[in-house]
Amino acid sequence: MSTRANSLAERKQQVLARAELERLRIRMAGSEARALLAPASGRQTAWARPRAATLLAIAVPLLGRARLGRMLRLTSIGMGMLRLLESLRRY
Description:
This protein is mostly helical. It is 89% helix and 0% strand. The chain has helices at residues 2-37, 45-63, 65-90. Helix 1 (2-37) runs antiparallel to helix 2 (45-63) and helix 2 packs antiparallel against helix 3. The chain is elongated. The N and C termini lie far apart (79 Å).
């Protein structure tokens, strides 16, 4: 019986360690996303950064890391295309 209790205790420790590792990965991905999405420094960032951080903190648990990553990637591509079109239009 003690071997079963030991194996259950080990399994519990493994699950807890995996959960903590996943939390750290999500936190790291969130900080990387915030750094990538952060607008240029200036007066506009004073209100944008906290709101972007809040939106990411809400969106990650609701949408999931993979889905949010895809959405952010598509948004980033779209914004890059808009910047390109704006720069071409200026010439």
